Each structure stands twice: as C-alpha cells, then as structure tokens.
Amino acid sequence: MATRSGGILVVTTTHDEEAKARALAAEVVRARLAACAQVYPVRSVYWWDGEVQDTAEWRTDFKTRGELADALVEFIGERHEYDTPEVVAVPVVTGSPAYLEWVRAETAER
Questions:
Q1: Average of pLDDT values for 38-50?
Q2: Is 0.85 topped by the overall pTM?
C-alpha cells in the first residue's frame, strides 16, 4: 500500500562522465544530504550556444527530504563543472511507506 510522501523529493543533475556522476553521488550520500543516488546514462537534447546539442550524459537522481533541498542544491552547485548545471527537484507524491521512512531515517541528523 502506498502512502503520501511527507516531503520527500527527487533531486536530479547530469554530468558528462560517469566517474564524475558517481563521485558526486558518493559525496552527497556520505554528507547525508540524500539517502541514495542512482546514476544512469541518458541522451540530452538541449539548446546551448545558439544551437541544438545532442549529448550523452550521466543522470543522477538523489532521494532526500524537502528540508535538505536548498543545502543539496548548493552542495551540487559548488562541485559541478557545468556553467549552468541542471539541478531540479521533483516532489514524490506517494510511495512505499517503508522506503519513504528509510529516506527520512538515512538523511536525519546524526
């Protein structure tokens, strides 16, 4: 049975190399700004420098609490190499109660 998330977010960014994406994922989780991160390959098509770009990238999705969003966005921005990195947060509307509680527990102050 699903339950309301109570402020859980998925925060997303992308990198041009898998190693960079994985390194950032580990830093964020180690800092307890997210309970987990998933890194996977994507194709990004976007407008940049006056033309359409089509690029292989590595997307990272972080699962976190809403209260940590600003700190997580700042943490990512301080470490990202892109001029204008994608950093967006999407609310989790519902999910597995046990998983949502795990996200809360893993991002709680220690």
A1: 96
A2: yes
